[in-house]
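Usage

Read records sequentially. Each one opens with the input sequence:
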Amino acid sequence: MKLNFIFSILLSFTAAISQAQRIDSENVPFQLLKEPSNPVEAQNRNFSVAVSSPYNITKEDVVKDAKANFQKQVDNYDQSVADAKLQHEERLKDYEAEVKKLQEKYKTESAEYNKLKTVEKIAMNATPPVLRIPSRPQLNIPQKPVYTEPDLRNALIVDNKVLASQINIDGFSRGGNYIEVSVNMERTNFQDNAGKSFANQPTKLVVKQNGTVKIDKTLFSDFEEIASSPTNEINLAAHEKNYLQKVINKINEILADNFAYAKINSTVKVETVKNKGEFDDLEKASIYVVTNLKKFQAKPDYAPNKAALEGLDKGINLWKDGLKKVNYDDKKAPYNAKIAAYLYMNLIRLNIALGRKSEAEKYLNEMQEHLVDMKLSWDQNNELKGLEQKIYN
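and closes with the structure output:
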């Protein structure tokens, strides 16, 4: 009887182990093709760019300006020396007045100190006053100006043709007019405010697709901080060059979002239940998802991507079917709250990685309704918070 009882316990323990749900995970790398907001057929992927700006600066112009600035410094040198001497005389007057004031103070304090008896000096811990005279101001004569060749690396050498050549749409050929890009920009405006430098560069961007206006907006009309020092202490040419490049980069970014296909290398965590029998469909789902994610190629109009997407959807549908079997009230049920948590996390992660935020949000909302039953681990809670931020940011 005792042996039969022990044997029954062993059978129960073995059954419990067989029903335990072992969940493994894999980080799956894959390529994703980001499609544009305004897709263009392959045969029409060509563009032209017209830029209107006040820029028409050559290397010769930069050298000419440098020589003109040098000549201005030469012409103003005598006046700058006179100004320096005048400022020195003013500082000398202030200095002499300060010295006189310190001497009078020293004389008064010395008289008061000398009136004290030795016992009083000891009791008051008094020390004799000291006369400290500040250094006498020195005359600083400005150095004579010396001409140096301008650094062309920081010089703003640009014209409308150069600016147009920097505007591009990946995957499109230059020279056609199916996409017409028109840019009208002002020169960079600088402004001082509270000891800092600010700049703006109002730029009108108009883009037509086959004659229809798709983009019409003004960029960089608001002033923004570019340096923590005033404009007279910074290299305006270098800052103007940087700001102009910022404008070009923004235009290219807008064009890419609207018309260009982009290759994105991504990674997504996929979990799976390895137990045989009860969870074969879920293991099959993970195989579908992992295998087909790896098949994706970030190429427009790439036929195998369609088959990979269909295979991926087979796995997703098996996960959805698994959710329908969940019994949140029975911890010993094969499809319990633990299985539900792993399925929801898979669906949320995958949809975020594929750029389907609305679908990911749907599963997030469903999962939140059952969170009280799931009792997530500390790691799961943290990951879920991160996924939620990706959905809503």
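Summary fields computed downstream for this record:
- The first strand starts at residue 23 and ends at 34.
- The CA atoms of residues 173 and 364 lie 42 Å apart.
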